[in-house]
Amino acid sequence: MSVTEAILLTPELDAPPIALMPRQDVKRRPRYWNVWWTLSVVFMALSILVAVLEWLGVLGDLGVMLAVIGVGLSMMSGLTGALRSSVDQIGEAIVTLVAEVSGSREDIRTLGTGLERIERVLLDRLPPR
Description:
By secondary structure, the chain is mainly alpha-helical. It has four helices and no strands.
């Protein structure tokens, strides 16, 4: 039998994936408004406004510098907002995973004692070496 056949013939487990497990007693932090995303949008809107005023000739050469500064500030704010959101989501996922795993410690301990009993029975019944 090939490895592929062995994998395909393996029965499926009835255990639900961790993402679908009920998340009881997990304290979640309240959501907050990420100011960095707002700043990114505001800086980009100001950059577009400055670019339009530059195109109309109102600001002259000052408009090019202001547009470049606005785009740079928008990129910096956007990267900071993305990093902050990612770190918060990863932290929340870790907290949830730790809470779910800590709930199954008793199951693991019970399994361990069951395996110890099986080992004792086998040692008692098998002939000595």
